[in-house]
Amino acid sequence: ALVRKADQEVVDMLPRSVEIVLGDVGDPCTLKAAVENCNKIIYCATARSTITGDLFRVDYQGVYNVTKAFQDFNNKLAQLRAGKSSKSKLLLAKFKSADSLNGWEVRQGTYFQDVVAFKYDAGMDAKFELSETGDAVFSGYVFTRGGYVELSKKLSLPLGCTLDRYEGLVLSVGGNGRSYVLILEAGPSADRSQSKLYFARFSTKVGFCRVRVPFSSFRPVKPDDPPMDPFLVHTMTIRFEPRRQVFP
């Protein structure tokens, strides 16, 4: 039981079998001990007033803080099991600082190399940066005919780990309601000229969302190429193509 104060009155209200942990749902640093070795959470905290700031702190931010602490704990366990179970997750990227953006390459291009596309080259821009709130943001615009912008990174996997032991990828992103193309490059890392490209499309919703992209959903960019072998994947790219957007 997570309590802000372990007063005798509070202790008497709880069963003796309950372990009491001091903390505050509004302070993420105090929640690690509360979620450790737990497999479920029952959230009973509620704001004591209808003041907007109080409601936000407890009923919104509090739920977020507890959920994130619980997720971080389970992710830590999964990382410890990585390599021992086919269901364990492998963390490929996590953005915590400006340095974590290193190695990601922002590119822009067009599908049609003609006079019209060349004339509107200034109609594309893309950047990847850490915002003031600590979020890694891939942003920009595409007005060029047949244009696209993309974010790419060569994967650096731990020694002995390969993607063929996993079923697919899980992306935790702050979406904008648009669809994107996820491209995986597979082949001998020493000879990129032998690599093949495979793509899968995924949609996002406005706000934070988790997107699951199984390896079985990837298709070769060139139809004659063989099916993708996750063992050979060495580069991941996220591409935005406004020409393929479908609006309701």
Automatic annotation (TrEMBL):
GO cellular component terms given for this protein: mitochondrion
Pfam families the UniProt entry points to: CIA30
Locations listed in the record: Mitochondrion
Keyword entries, A-Z: Chaperone, Mitochondrion
Location, primary (coarse class): mitochondrion
Entry annotated with the keyword Mitochondrion: yes
Residue stretches making up the NADH:ubiquinone oxidoreductase intermediate-associated protein domain: 126-222
UniProt protein name: NADH:ubiquinone oxidoreductase intermediate-associated protein 30 domain-containing protein
